[in-house]
Design a protein that fits this description.
The structure holds two protein chains of two kinds. By secondary structure, chain A is an alpha/beta fold. Chain A is built from seven helices and ten strands. In chain A, the strands form two sheets. In chain A, strands 6-7-8-3-9-10 form a six-stranded mixed sheet, sandwiched between helices. Chain B has a six-stranded mixed sheet, sandwiched between helices. In chain B, helix 6 crosses helix 7, helix 6 packs parallel to helix 8 and helix 7 packs across helix 8.
């Protein structure tokens, strides 16, 4: 146990050159996650919750603040200051990011995508087929879909494939970007079971969700976000 | 972890290419990189002396096994950069270093012509946008690959044919067609023969210039998949030039954005696409379909 992620005074604004404007996305965020904890953030669209996740993943560059992460490879480091190379290394070996969106080379089967993820993370190529089947089965992707191309998958199926190809790398910290948005009630329930299983397995997770209801009983702590600021937590 | 400690495969420092001699106004007055300080240049062209400043102070690092994307509009200097690195064109100023050559200590722009030829044939592979640039259209596919093997010192016909078959098989060219000339192949097949040729001497660095431009979507997917597989299986470092942000998004870990011969922004590919900082990059990303 111990602190895995510690966000301090994090702020982000976007400069839109064509409009000559700055847009504030989030301000003075403080948040920390213990190892093994599941923290959820909810809030309206545009409240800045995705921004936090993307700042941790470093798709966004922050203006001020720090994101300290306890890396198994490098020790405690500030993700905001880390080199691009370090970030790529961490993404490959320690961090996972899951959404319903897939960005993959067309005409690559679901099975192959999980195999590739396994090998990218340094897994033995001869183990890849076994691992891929194990993960696809574990995360309940319909067996008929394993050898088809995922660009025609439904949102829920893409999500499960994304979880499979992220979890095959056993990340220490999993970032969940609205995994339940636009899913029907049945699919949401499946995701909930799946996340609960990940939590039982000890994965540390930071997730953003549309609805408060979904997080209840699942997350250890919940935050509400409004206008770029993080509200009080409702722990359990 | 090995990757984390290894040195850069390719280091480019202040690479500059001018077409023309330049004049005091354009050589002295070049901006420092801010748009407000473009100096006397019109885009990359000096209206006073007519010099084209195709590359201005380009610096980059490529790590072993990494794919670095280079995007920018036509005329931004992407292809000139590739050609200078492949010695098709002579850079005006600057230096570059390749780790496998002299431990990365020698500026390869300054080594002997003979050493440069050796570097070109053993350490580098190039795939041009237009297959006519990279292939002899009236020689057989096999002979095209043999040419590169001979350039690197091979002399045995048997081994060369075996290697050529292996490569063509790797890029999915049916072996029964290996004796045919690329002029009889489709654009996608020509591109794959070029890739096979570029790979023939197992170079640690591949230069790919708009390799999917002009190919239909299904063929494009095959070529992209091939590139990705080569990276995964062989750990080859690659510079991938494209004006197609979709291609860059799928292939590149990091990306440079070029405009008027300069690098205006560089970063993780998803950061460039999702949080572009430079006004030009923002325009470019907003144009993405």
């Amino acid at each position: 146990m111990g602190v895995l992620l510690e966000i301090q005074n994090l702020s982000k604004a976007f400069t839109l050159h064509n409009l000559g404007r700055h847009i504030k996305a989030c301000q003075n965020i403080d948040l920390s996650l213990q190892s093994g904890e599941f923290v959820g953030i909810t809030g309206k669209s545009g409240s800045g919750k995705s921004t936090i996740l993307k700042l941790v993943w470093r798709s966004y560059l922050p203006q001020t603040g720090s994101v300290f992460y306890e890396s198994s490879e490098f020790g405690r480091l500030d993700l905001n200051q880390a080199s691009e190379r370090t970030i790529l290394h961490l993404r490959r070996y320690e961090l996972g990011y899951v959404s319903q969106f897939l960005n993959v080379i067309p005409r690559t089967t679901a099975r192959r995508l999980v195999e590739q993820a396994w090998m990218e993370h340094g897994g033995a190529p001869n183990q890849a087929p076994v691992e891929a089947e194990r993960m696809l089965g574990h995360f309940d992707l319909d067996r008929e879909l394993w050898d088809s191309y995922p660009n025609t998958f439904s949102g829920g199926e893409k999500l499960r494939l994304n979880i499979a190809r992220t979890m095959v790398k056993r990340p220490r910290l999993l970032l969940l970007d609205e995994p339940t948005a636009s899913l029907d009630q049945g699919s949401k329930e499946k995701v909930r079971i799946l996340l609960d299983r990940l939590k039982q397995e000890g994965t540390t997770m930071l997730g953003i969700f549309h609805d408060l209801e979904f997080m209840q009983g699942l997350c250890d702590r919940e935050y509400q976000m409004a206008q770029g600021a993080l509200g009080a937590s409702y722990g359990q | 972890m090995i990757q984390q400690q290894a040195g850069a495969l390719l280091k480019v420092r202040n690479l500059t290419k001018r077409f023309g001699d330049g004049c005091p106004q354009c050589l002295e007055g070049l901006g420092t990189g801010n748009d407000a300080e473009e100096g006397p240049l019109h885009h990359n062209y000096c209206p006073i002396c007519g010099t084209v400043h195709a590359l201005r102070d380009i610096s980059l690092d490529l790590w072993p096994g990494e794919i670095l994307g280079i995007v920018g509009e036509s005329g931004s200097g992407k292809s000139t950069l590739m050609r200078c690195l492949y010695f098709d064109q002579e850079a005006t100023e600057g230096e570059f270093f390749l780790d496998p050559f002299d431990g990365g200590k020698a500026n390869v722009l300054k080594v002997s012509a003979q050493a440069r030829r050796a570097i070109r044939h053993t350490l580098l592979g190039m795939v041009y946008q237009n297959p006519v640039m990279g292939l002899r259209m009236n020689y057989s596919a096999v002979a095209n690959i043999a040419e590169k093997l001979i350039a690197a010192g091979s002399r045995n016909v048997g081994t060369m044919t075996a290697r050529a078959s292996e490569l063509l098989d790797q890029v999915n060219i049916p072996l029964r067609r290996m004796g045919e000339s690329p002029s009889r192949f489709s654009g996608g097949m020509q591109q794959r023969v070029q890739i096979a040729k570029a790979l023939s001497n197992r170079p640690p660095l591949l230069l790919l210039d708009e390799i999917t431009t002009g190919l239909d979507l299904s063929v494009q997917a095959k070529v992209l998949d091939l590139v990705r597989q080569l990276q995964a299986d062989l750990g080859i470092g690659m510079l991938v030039v494209s004006h197609d942000l979709g291609v860059i998004r799928m292939l590149a870990d990091r990306t440079l954005v070029m405009l008027n011969g300069r690098v205006v922004e560089s970063g993780l590919t998803d950061q460039i696409l999702e949080d572009p900082q430079d006004p030009y990059t923002q325009d470019l990303v907003h144009s993405l379909l």
